[in-house]
Design a protein that fits this description.
about 45% strand; about 270 residues; Porin
Length: about 270
């Protein structure tokens, strides 16, 4: 809710800045005569940065506001690792002490951004808008299919009451304990809000005055509180092993995503 209020405030600022400049134009007819920069140009751009690789199209709304719309995607980055198993020595079950796992980071987002230029002769701009699309940003899973079959069988036997007083066991991921499914597989993911308001500042024009231009942007996406899932079950503090650290828990407390992007663009109309 707070992030949407910030977005509305930023949009109001953009409209207010444009209205103020329009008032100045009314006092100076020369400015109004030259203010014909309304949807009369089109530019395409390519960008790279912490939002991934992206492309967009841009048009001027007036001399002080330009709009960009496009798509950014982060190519899947895979990292091999190991999952530890929090398991006692149980006779009759072949439960490994650790398993090979793979983590994957990747997402795709659409974007709609409004660049406000407070000074007509400067390329400095304030940007407000939103990214929308992927909610899952991180995924982790075991490499070998069914490697946790005996662990799943043991947990089912505990649930059936075959071992009074015993507790279920699971895979350690940061501070969380993950239970495998009946097929002996485990999967975890981190999800954020699919709608992510954005605020930022930068230099450069979305629609360059010359044929080719460059932009540099710094900002933040307000993606809410990241949530950790085991398959479709959201994990809470009750699903931890009592630890007080871990990168997973740290990520789950970060409510904004800092962004930095470089963009090259060309005016085609």
């Amino acid at each position: 809710m707070k992030s949407r209020v910030l977005l509305i405030f930023a949009m109001a600022f953009a409209i207010g800045a444009n209205a103020q400049n329009s008032t100045k134009c009314n006092k100076n007819n020369d400015c109004c005569k030259n203010d014909k920069n309304i949807f009369n140009h089109l530019a395409v751009g390519l960008n790279v940065g912490t939002t991934g690789i992206g492309f967009d199209v841009a048009m001027p709304i007036c001399n002080y506001v330009q709009v960009r719309a496009g798509v950014d995607f982060m190519p899947n980055i895979k990292v091999s690792t190991d999952f530890g198993i929090d398991a006692p020595n149980v006779e009759g079950y072949n439960i490994p002490q650790s398993i090979e796992a793979e983590g994957k980071v990747g997402f795709t987002n659409g974007k709609l951004l409004f660049d406000v230029y407070p000074f007509r002769s400067s390329s400095f701009h304030v940007t407000a808008g939103a990214y929308f699309g992927s909610s899952k940003i991180v995924k982790a899973y075991n490499k070998e299919y069914g490697v946790l079959g005996d662990l799943a069988k043991y947990n089912n036997d505990v649930e059936a009451g075959l071992y009074p007083g015993a507790e279920k066991i699971g895979v350690e991921l940061g501070d969380y304990l993950l239970e495998p499914d009946d097929d002996g597989n485990v999967q975890a993911s981190i999800k954020t809000a699919s709608f992510k308001p954005y605020l930022g500042i930068g230099f450069g024009r979305a629609v360059p005055k010359k044929r080719v231009g460059f932009m540099f942007d710094l900002g933040v996406q307000f993606w809410g509180t990241p949530k950790v899932y085991c398959f479709d079950k959201r994990l809470t503090d009750e699903d931890t092993n009592g630890g007080d650290g871990g990168i997973i828990k740290t990520i789950s407390k970060i409510k904004v995503y800092p962004t930095m992007n470089f963009r090259i663009c060309g005016r085609i109309l």
